Amino acid sequence: MHHRHQGCRFAGYLLLPTLCIVLTALPSAQVPLRPSAEALAAAQPELIDRLRADPFTYFRFINRAWTTRVCAAFADVTDATIVRLHGDAHVEQFAFTNDAWGLDDFDDSTRGPAFVDIVRFLGSIDLATRQRGWTRDRDSLWNRFFEGYYRGLSESDYRPPEPGLVRQLRQQTSFTRTAFLSWGEQQMQPMEEAQLKSIVSGIEALERLVRLERSDLAPGYFAVIRAGWLRIGIGSAAARKVLIRLQGPTTHPEYDVLVEAKEVANLEGLACLESSAPLQAARVIDGTRQIGRLKHDILAIGPTQSIAAASDRAEHWQHWWVSSWEPSYREVHVSDLRSVEDLADIAYDGGVQLGANKLVSVRKQMLSSAVELEGRLRKETVKIVEELLAGWRELGKDARGKQR
After folding, report:
1. Beta-carbon contacts of residue 336 (< 8 Å; ≥ 6 apart)
2. Distance CA 50, CA 6 (A)
3. For the segment 287-326, what is each residue's pLDDT rounded down to a tens digit?
4. Which strands form 330-331's sheet, in the order they lie side by side?
5. What angle in degrees, to the nearest 10, is found between the helix axes of 115-132 and 63-73?
6. What contacts 256, CB < 8 A, 6 or more positions away?
7. 241 pairs with which residues across the strands?
8. Cβ atoms of residues 116 and 88 within 8 Å
9. Are 373 and 13 in contact (CB under 8 A)?
């Protein structure tokens, strides 16, 4: 999803004791958790600086390596039920709009064992407590997550009350549609004329598909006003993305809409995840619809080969998906958290959401399995977080070595 409001990031954790970042000693038997060389090579220098400054940003960047490690840690759990996963569930995936809140950003959604989402979310809580100096509360926050997860499995229709942090951030957020559209255009990076023509052709094809289900959309809704490459994101930094301004429901510029076309992430080779279907973008759409609470006016696979032709990867046209951006959308960042109670609310709400999306036929089995594995899920999370922190320190040492 888009990142219109970026929360403040802290820098130089090891030099600022007031931030209370607790980095425990790493047992020699553990191997640092590192991003792939290809991912690092593709990252912009500004992002590399952020990775070195902030372990949570590093955590967000290496989801593939993290998931590989989680799969290996639970390789002996051969009877795990395969369910729809968020795929990258963590504290900073919690977002809200004017009328909804919950986990969003389903780029890595697929099918696999529930422990993938659980360990990812627990790890994010651990790292958030380190960043905010709340490490003594980590276990109670994990308890809160599991309370929510178990309740979601037991009562699929249950919805937690809106977190107080969401109400507070909504009041602080000041925006207009004009400002939102202007900000969007500032994110559009130049593309060649031939590429822009491919985008227009792709959107025309997308319109034909969407109107099969959305005949209510006004004539001219999909007219392309402007488009450009999009270079934002952390975990999705390497993905090809295009941001497009469409005419929308009226000819008045204030009511134009922004849509993002994004190349789907490659999840092939992750041992405990189900192999993707030929139409890989379908897994993102399925995850958004099955698990997500935030709604997209436009959410579709495609649009066609034309959109991918703009990225010189036409053979992968079916691996693109398109979603509209909501002007009131905002993500919660760790730096937004005012108290342990704020983090507890997000942990509980996220747990409910991850549990409630499971199918009726497997909920009882899932509940029993999660309770049985809970102690191990906690222990493995501790190990993997330490390995991640070792990889983060290593990246920082590499930078200092190069500076010499």
Report:
1. 7, 165, 169, 342
2. 13
3. 999 999 999 999 998 754 555 455 544 444 457 899 999 9
4. 101-103, 94-96, 330-331
5. 120
6. 181, 225, 245, 246, 247, 248
7. 262
8. no
9. no
**pTM of the entire predicted model:** 0.88
Element (H, E) at 30: none
φ and ψ at residue 102, rounded to 5 degrees: 145, 180
**pLDDT tens-digit profile of 34-54?**
998 988 998 989 999 999 999
Buried-exposed string 245-270: b where 16+ CB fall within 10 A, e elsewhere: bbbbeeeeeeebbbbbbbbbbebeeb
Which residue is it, tokens 């190349």? 263
Measured over the CA atoms of residue 149, residue 150, residue 156 and residue 159, the dihedral's sign is negative
**Which residues fall within 8 angstroms of residue 181, CB to CB, at 6 or more apart?**
245, 253, 254, 256, 258
Helices (H), 227-359: 281-291, 305-309, 340-356
| 123 contacts: CB under 8 Å, gap ≥ 6 | 59, 66, 90, 381, 384, 385, 388
Beta carbons of 112 and 83 less than 8 angstroms apart: yes
Report the distance separating Cα 356 and Cα 117, nearest Å. 13
